[in-house]
């Protein structure tokens, strides 16, 4: 729609397409009000947006280079256009919610140079008996460090580059190894010669900056990274308003925590607790007993009334829970700090447990294409009921009547 075709009057004019603004726009449009929804940016969702990696780089450059237009200049321009008895209130064109933006990139240039100069072999090099002798002596161990998956044979653990390196034996081994190979060497040689037919072993690849740029459209990055509880005000709003039909949601498959130098899965449900290998049998019973108590802790005030003004961590210690269980409950289930009061921690744990099982094994939902989908869903609903959208447009000035202040 061209600017000259826009209506001259609207019931509601909304600036910005963030989550709050988008919900208000959808609500106003749904009850029949005419809505003009503006955003100075060239994308929806404002500070809730989701970007591809290349889109994020462009967003960073945009905010690093933005400059404030002098408000005094705008005020002088608009004062020359208004009538007597009116006042002009200029609005800033600069997004003050984001400032002091800096980017730090830590990447190993040496690894990237090695990646560029390395020429992979297109075929397997011929293998002779000397290869067998070197493998039996265990001279090459690099493959065992990089191969992922189940245990494999020596032939499966070799990459083409490594076979090329070991196929050049020393001169003092050449005659003795080739002339009279033993029976075991012949069997290993036949096994190695058939290895090209085996499926290639997956090797862990190091992620570099160049690879991130190349694969940047295969993932999205949220400016605001949040998870939604499967039972909550936002999910209820998405269902009741039927806005959820505009997006696809996924259940978070598992919850992980970092402890003692390892990333471990957090047992959430009863099945997870009893299947966990991180917990002892005694810890499993203690955890199940505590989680059962948290589900209806209001019915047993005598259990926690002495700790209502004390941190939740002290209450966990009083329950004789181990350090392992305290870590899981505090940081991965209740998701509170060490200074959170006991009653607040119990409520957080209770809410976590009540959200389990509604859509999956964990209590969290997430939009498939990022959190920026949610504001866009409400914008779509507003547009369906007649709302008009203009990106890269904003309001420069408000004209206010001096008498009525309208």
TrEMBL record:
Composition bias, Basic and acidic residues: 159-177
InterPro entries to which the protein is assigned, alphabetical: FAD/NAD-bd_sf, GDP_dissociation_inhibitor, Rab_escort
Residue numbers spanned by region Disordered: 109-203
GO molecular function: GDP-dissociation inhibitor activity; GTPase activator activity
Polar residues biased stretches: 120-131, 149-158
Predominant place of localization: cytoplasm
Signal peptide extent: none
GO biological process: intracellular protein transport; small GTPase-mediated signal transduction; vesicle-mediated transport
UniProt keywords, alphabetically: Cytoplasm, GTPase activation
Domain of life: Eukaryota
Database matches in Pfam families: GDI
Compartments (UniProt record): Cytoplasm
GO cellular component annotations of the record: cytosol; nucleus; Rab-protein geranylgeranyltransferase complex
Family listed: Belongs to the Rab GDI family.
PANTHER family, sorted: CHM, RAB ESCORT PROTEIN 1, RAB GDP-DISSOCIATION INHIBITOR
Protein name: CHM Rab escort protein
Organism listed in the record: Cyprinus carpio
């Amino acid at each position: 729609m061209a600017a000259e075709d826009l209506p001259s009057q609207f019931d509601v004019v909304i600036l910005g397409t963030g989550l709050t603004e988008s919900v208000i726009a959808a609500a106003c449009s749904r009850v029949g009000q005419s809505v003009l929804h503006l955003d100075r940016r060239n994308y929806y969702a404002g500070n809730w947006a989701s970007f591809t990696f290349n889109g994020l780089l462009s967003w960073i450059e945009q905010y690093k280079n933005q400059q404030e237009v002098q408000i005094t200049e705008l005020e002088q321009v608009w004062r020359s256009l208004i009538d007597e008895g009116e006042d002009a209130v200029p609005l800033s064109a600069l997004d003050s919610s984001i400032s002091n933006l800096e980017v730090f990139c830590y990447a190993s240039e040496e690894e990237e140079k090695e990646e560029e100069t390395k020429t992979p072999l297109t075929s397997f090099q011929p293998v002779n008996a000397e290869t067998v002798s070197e493998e039996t002596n265990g001279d090459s161990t690099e493959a065992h460090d990089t191969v992922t998956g189940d245990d494999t044979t020596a032939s499966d653990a070799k990459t083409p580059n490594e076979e090329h390196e070991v196929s050049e034996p020393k001169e003092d081994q050449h005659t003795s190894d080739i002339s009279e190979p033993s029976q075991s060497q012949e069997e290993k040689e036949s096994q190695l010669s058939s290895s090209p037919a085996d499926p290639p072993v997956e090797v862990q690849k190091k992620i570099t900056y160049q690879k991130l740029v190349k694969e940047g459209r295969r993932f999205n990055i949220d400016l605001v990274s949040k998870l939604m509880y499967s039972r909550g005000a936002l999910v209820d709003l998405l269902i009741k308003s039927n806005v959820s039909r505009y997006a696809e949601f996924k259940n978070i498959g598992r919850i992980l925590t970092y402890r003692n130098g390892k990333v471990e899965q957090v047992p959430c449900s009863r099945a997870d607790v009893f299947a966990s290998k991180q917990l002892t049998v005694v810890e499993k019973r203690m955890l199940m007993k505590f989680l059962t108590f948290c589900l209806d802790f209001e019915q047993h005030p005598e259990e926690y009334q002495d700790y209502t003004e004390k941190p939740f961590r002290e209450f966990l210690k009083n329950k004789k829970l181990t350090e392992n269980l305290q870590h899981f409950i505090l940081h991965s289930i209740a998701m509170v700090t060490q200074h959170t009061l006991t009653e607040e921690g119990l409520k957080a744990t209770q809410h976590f447990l009540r959200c389990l099982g509604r859509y999956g094994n964990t209590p969290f939902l997430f939009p498939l294409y990022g959190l920026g989908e949610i504001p866009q869903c409400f914008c779509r609903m507003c547009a369906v009921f007649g709302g008009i959208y203009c990106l890269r447009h904003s309001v420069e000035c408000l004209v206010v009547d001096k008498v009525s202040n309208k």
